[in-house]
Amino acid sequence: xxxxxxxxxxxxxxxxxxxxxxxxxxxxxxxxxxxxxxxxxxxxxxxxxxxxxxxxxxxxxxxxxxxxxxxxxxxxxxxxxxxxxxxxxxxxxxxxxxxxxxxxxxxxxxxxxxxxxxxxxxxxxxxxxxxxxxxxxxxxxxxxxxxxxxxxxxxxxxxxxxxxxxxxxxxxxxxxxxxxxxxxxxxxxxxxxxxxxxxxxxxxxxxxxxxxxxxxxx
Length: 218
What we know:
Helix content: 40-55%
Order of helices and strands: EEHHHHEHEHEHEHEHEH
Mean pLDDT: 96
Strand order of the largest sheet: 5-4-1-6-7-8
Strand content: 5-15%
CATH architecture of the largest domain: 3-Layer(aba) Sandwich
CATH superfamily of the largest domain: HAD superfamily/HAD-like
Largest sheet: 6 strands, parallel
Shape: globular
CATH topology of the largest domain: Rossmann fold
């Protein structure tokens, strides 16, 4: 592997534990539209997918903008109070930047709540480039969001690595020719997917395990 000089992070499920607010926003949406909640497993299966895409699948009978607004109204009201970084991730992002790696964040989340989360926990100064779903026409697993970040950072794909928690992240990296790292605290990727032909290049169980990977020289 070429010497890594660029580290790209996903947001939800990788840096930030947004599981609670996302699940509760979905259940609020289901209750409002259908009058009842759905199994949590059906929500987890959508983690990493752009919201509009999921909404069109979940509620084909109503305008997607209406469903999205129900979801986002609950999320906006509760986001800051219900999120927290995964243990060690704030320190990891800070240390990666302090070690002079270029850093990026590529997410299918909208920009406003992503920035809120970064600013709340003091991470914004440590991210050189932010690409959200507002910035792209195509979304993970398409490589466009990742390639936009790498172009802005003037980074080569072969010298970059991406951390994520879903197959959308892993496939985005693979489609861009970037090495992928699956975080061990993820809840959305099955053993079969991990061991399959499109599985991640690496898995880390603790944030600091990343340094064993990116310190590898060509």
